């Protein structure tokens, strides 16, 4: 099915069989589980998935059960992109030898924020530099949730984790979130995009675009984690909406280096009064609860300032500076 | 390990997972159960899209959705995201 035929309506999604099956052991209200289910609905044909160690690898492959209805490979934490490049090269040579009959096989590499921001970045950078044809999906739940909520390069400023606890000494994580998608844009790769599961149609379109593009594609998906964020499981999808509305995580895509805002963020850029204060997103999350105490006021202002700064920088990049 | 389980010599090499996870029911994790008001429901299917467990199924032959209690973990995302508030979470009692 081509992008034109596949309209991405709720009915299309509901009728397409799940490739990420029920019965996985993710926590109730798991954001990444929704993300993976949806991403697998946007595949266009034969697909091979490879995954780095992380929450979604653990919950979907507890021996002897597997949640994957497609060929799936797991190796070490740092090798999602290296695996993908190996798979893609093997497919190429096997097709040449006539061992693979399919006209095209898509390769998707999936990793969490630990497997991308910190541990997997060298493999990712190398695979992109070599120009392998694969889609790298980063599901960003903003810490190492699977091992007990340790801070990662993707943890936002001020968030409390078990290795950056908020207390009298430090007010949560002191460093800022690494702009990973911009690092990938700097690789001059053909397709980079950010997505959020609340805007599911936007996300599925980006997955499909990433698969269709020749060469490497990178998709940064925001994925709320109720366990690690100490938030209400029912609100996982709501947070993925608020994070876009507050411009903490704007949606944009970069095609061959041309950066453009996606519709949900574009609407905010065109009508700045729609932009919500960051407190709307931060409140209700236990990891930010110290910010709402009297001593956290300064930190809250700092988060707003950095968010605004990054938003303005993005607007300038997309040629929409105010 | 129980005596019934296979030893390391009998299992597939490299620990290949051989069973679908659909055989493993996660429905007994839940504390709250989603209850739907069919009158209010517009069949927009947003709950089917957002369910992390794929526990809400669309049945085209009936033109209706179905909750699969076998997998639903009772997170409440469906109730929270329902545009018409047709789904409520009820405390599950034996």
Query: How many beta-strand elements of chain B?
Result: 5
Share of helix among residues of chain B?
10-25%
Distance between the terminal alpha carbons of chain A, to the nearest Å?
40 Å
Average of the residue pLDDT scores of chain B? 88
Strand order of the largest sheet of chain A: 3-1-4-5-7-6-8-9
The major β-sheet of chain B equals: 2 strands, antiparallel
Rg from Cα of chain B: 18 Å
Class per helix and strand makeup of chain A: alpha/beta
Total number of helices of chain A: 13
Oligomer: heterodimer
The named CATH superfamily of chain A: Thiamin diphosphate (ThDP)-binding fold, Pyr/PP domains
Look at the structure and give the CATH class of chain A: Alpha Beta
State the order of secondary-structure elements of chain B, H for helix, E for strand. Answer: EEHEEHE
What does this entry show, briefly?
The complex is a heterodimer of chains A (322) and B (94). Chain A is of the alpha/beta class and 322 residues long. Chain A has helices spanning 10-15, 31-41, 55-60, 80-96, 114-118, 121-130, 180-185, 200-212, 226-229, 236-245, 263-270, 278-282, 297-317, and strands spanning 47-51, 65-66, 72-74, 106-112, 135-140, 191-195, 217-222, 252-255, 258-261.
Provide structural commentary:
The complex is a heterodimer of chains A (322) and B (94). Chain A is of the alpha/beta class and 322 residues long. Chain A has a single domain (10-317), classed as Rossmann fold. Helix content of chain A is 38%, strand content 13%. Chain A is built from 13 helices and nine strands. Chain A has helices spanning 10-15, 31-41, 55-60, 80-96, 114-118, 121-130, 180-185, 200-212, 226-229, 236-245, 263-270, 278-282, 297-317; strands spanning 47-51, 65-66, 72-74, 106-112, 135-140, 191-195, 217-222, 252-255, 258-261. An eight-stranded mixed β-sheet of chain A has the order 3-1-4-5-7-6-8-9, with helices on both faces. In chain A, a hairpin with a 2-residue loop joins strand 8 and strand 9. In chain A, helix 4 packs parallel to helix 6 (121-130). By secondary structure, chain B is α+β, with helices and mostly antiparallel strands. Helix content of chain B is 11%, strand content 21%. Chain B has two helices and five strands. In chain B, the strands form two sheets. In chain B, strands 2-5 form a two-stranded antiparallel sheet. In chain B, a hairpin with a 4-residue loop joins strand 3 (56-59) and strand 4 (64-67). The mean pLDDT of chain B is 88.
């Amino acid at each position: 099915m081509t992008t034109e035929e596949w309209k991405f309506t709720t009915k299309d999604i509901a009728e397409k069989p799940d490739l990420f099956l029920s019965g996985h052991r993710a926590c109730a209200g798991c954001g990444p589980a929704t993300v993976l289910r949806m991403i697998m609905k946007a595949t266009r044909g034969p697909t091979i998935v490879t995954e780095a160690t992380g929450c979604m690898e653990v919950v979907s492959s507890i021996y002897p059960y597997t949640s994957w209805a497609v060929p799936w490979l797991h190796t070490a934490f740092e090798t999602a992109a290296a695996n993908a490049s190996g798979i893609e090269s093997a497919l190429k040579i096997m097709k040449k030898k006539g061992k693979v009959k399919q006209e095209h096989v898509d390769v998707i590499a999936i990793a969490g924020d630990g497997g991308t921001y910190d541990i997997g970045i060298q493999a990712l950078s190398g695979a992109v530099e070599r120009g392998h044809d694969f889609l790298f999906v980063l599901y960003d739940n903003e810490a190492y949730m699977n091992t007990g909520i340790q801070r990662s390069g993707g943890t936002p400023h001020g968030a409390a984790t078990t290795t950056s606890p908020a207390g009298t000494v430090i007010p949560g994580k002191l460093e800022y979130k690494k702009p990973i998608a911009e690092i990938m844009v700097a690789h001059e790769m053909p397709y980079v995009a950010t997505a959020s599961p609340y805007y599911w149609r936007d996300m599925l379109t980006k997955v499909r675009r990433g698969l269709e593009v020749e060469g490497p594609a990178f998709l940064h998906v925001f994925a709320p984690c109720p366990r690690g964020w100490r938030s209400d499981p029912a609100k996982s999808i709501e947070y993925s909406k608020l994070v876009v509305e507050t411009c903490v995580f704007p949606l944009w895509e970069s095609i061959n280096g041309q950066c453009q805002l996606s519709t949900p963020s574009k609407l905010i850029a065109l009508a700045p009064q729609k932009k919500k204060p960051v407190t709307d997103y931060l409140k209700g999350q236990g990891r930010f609860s110290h910010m709402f105490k009297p001593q956290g006021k300064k930190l809250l202002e700092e988060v707003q300032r950095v968010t605004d700064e990054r938003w303005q920088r993005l607007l300038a990049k997309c040629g929409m500076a105010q | 390990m129980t005596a019934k389980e296979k030893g390391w010599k009998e299992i597939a090499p490299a620990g290949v997972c051989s069973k679908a996870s659909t055989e493993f029911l996660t429905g007994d994790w839940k504390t709250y159960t989603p209850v739907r008001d069919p009158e209010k429901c517009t069949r927009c299917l947003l709950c089917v899209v957002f369910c992390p467990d794929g526990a809400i199924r669309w049945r085209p032959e009936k033109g209706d959705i179905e909750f699969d209690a076998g997998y639903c973990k009772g997170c409440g995302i469906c109730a929270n995201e329902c545009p018409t508030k047709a789904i409520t979470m009820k405390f599950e009692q034996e």
